[in-house]
Amino acid sequence: MKIGFVAEPYEESGASGMGYMILELLKNLPIADKKHEFTIYSSVSIRKDLVLVPIRNIIVPKSFLGKFLWFLRTDEDIDVLLFVTPLLPLILPRRIKAIPIFPEVVSQKIVPGTLHDKFVAFVRDHVLMPICLSRAVKLITISHATKDDIITYYKILPNDITVIYVGFQNLSSYKNKTPVVEDRIKPYFFFTGRVKPRKNVHAIVSAFIQFKKRTHTDCKLVIAGKAGGDYYESMLKELTKNGLQNDVFFVGYVSPESLCSYYVHALAFVFPSLNEGFGMPVVEAMNLGTPVITSSISSLPEAAGDAGLLVDPYDIGDISHAMEEIFTDSGLRAKLIEKGYVQAKKFSWEKTAREYLSVIEGIV
To answer: Fewest Cβ atoms closer than 10 Å to its Cβ: which of 49, 56, 188, 218?
Structure first.
């Protein structure tokens, strides 16, 4: 079978979220079953040592309109085309079976902040997405929560959607060569991800302030990820108002080695996100033996299973008391660590790739 995969956005270093998922699918799909022929479409050349079996790599335009026109006119000899929404192609020749990968529903659940963002989200999610989905012979998504969202907002039949869980970034190979975490920030709670409202980072900061006021401990909070703008400034303002500006460390983007170190030495990973397609960081933390506090909504209970401490992400007090439980109850920490190792073993990119190919083979 001839399978095409649109590897956009393609990121080789520092990839996260959708970019990381595409990178892992790119590496694992071609080796999951070598009898298929793979063509990778990307706006830049794929690094030759990234895929361990022969593939074709076709360069396509990077722009929205350029990619649309290229695929509309293509005479490529492929049976199936995989691509991640909301990326193009929107329209394909009828002979090519389209299988969009739909990671998450966002704007319908969390209203974008600026007028520009609202306009972009409307065009993408209400105008272009229905066109894209109407051509799909099958839709793949990454959690049952996202499947429910797709059914609700796009009226897709349940049988036309297949849930395939993703893997995660396995950082365990860095355990023996991680940088030392400074003693001055220990003990600490940890968050990593984009510092923006959807990740609910301000709620973590507010919960930490409550925790500190209640317990009077020397505990710290470490936040890794790009931060800036009004959202970041509002957190600094609240910390300064409460005299805790020296107890929270915004460390920016960190290397995989440092990320591993921050996970391993943390009291817990705190991730009360408001909406996720799956929640890879939850499993990432569990795989390293870090207890997890995460949301009781969206897809996060699927990622955490019974191995996480689930909280209402809209309830600052709930998050704060979960921090206190982790800090004061060593037995609970040990239990969550043990369960986390078991939960993490349920997910891998190799398993994801095999399930993708099973779906593809079932429709061709």
So the answer is: 49
